[in-house]
Amino acid sequence: MTDATLRSREDERAFHEACFEFAATQAQMATCTRARCGAVIVLAGGEGIIGQGFNAPPLGDEANRKCDGVYDLTSKPKSDKTCCIHAEWNAIIDGLSSNPENLIGSTLYFMRVDENGKFTQAGEPYCTVCSRLALQAGISFFALWNDGPQIIPTDEYNDTSYAYHRKTSDSADEAK
Ligand SMILES: [Zn+2]
Ligand SMILES: [Zn+2]
To answer: Within the chain, which residues score under 50 in pLDDT?
Structure first.
């Protein structure tokens, strides 16, 4: 490997990290009581941010908040037990509202922060609502933080999210 490719890989990683930092600043604005998540959508080629969002009740309105209710969190998917518009949905709506064409080939960066605003591990993809919506919007890559940037083609992200549910429902069946 040449110095040039090494350098460009470092640049690429630094670029991804900056996008996750931006998603983390979005996450810190989240008003959901269950999780603080942020998302940013970056134009194909990395030429700018075209959508951003954090999780919050619909219309940011407390009257629409449902996440203070009591839910059975042992059943999957956990994600849909929250009241809120997911950060990814808000970022996608934001992107679509300015120019739907921009989403074609874009990358969505997702970050959940802890109570101190620090990055957390995303783990395995499981939100099939976000994966389907991202696919339909034309987003090409879903970027997760797992010990560093993990850039996943959206169709693969969608398949992996569905596989997660098959796996967890299989293990639930075995437990019976
Ligand atoms: Zn919520
Ligand atoms: Zn989601």
So the answer is: 172-176
62 CA distance to ligand 2 middle (Å): 20
Q: Distance, CA 144 to ligand 2 centroid (Å)?
A: 12
Q: For 47-65, write each residue's pLDDT tens digit.
A: 899 999 999 999 999 999 9
**35, two tokens:** 């999780």
Considering the domain boundaries, does residue 97 fall inside one? yes
Q: Is residue 155 part of a domain?
A: yes
Residue 162 belongs to some domain of the structure:
yes
Tell me how many domains the chain contains.
Answer: 1
112 alpha carbon, closest ligand = 2
Q: How far is the CA of 127 from the centre of ligand 2 (A)?
A: 5
Whether residue 2 lies inside any domain: the answer is: no
Side by side, the strands of the sheet bearing 149-153 are 49-54, 36-42, 107-113, 141-145, 149-153
For residue 90, the CA-to-ligand 1 centroid distance in Å is 13
Provide the residue range defining the domain that includes 61. Answer: 10-175
The pTM (predicted TM-score) of the whole model is: 0.89
C-alpha 37/C-alpha 26 separation (Å) is 7
Q: What is the CATH number of the domain that holds 30?
A: 3.40.140.10
> Ligand 1 mean position to 83 CA, how many Å?
4
Residue 95 CA, distance from chain mean position: 14
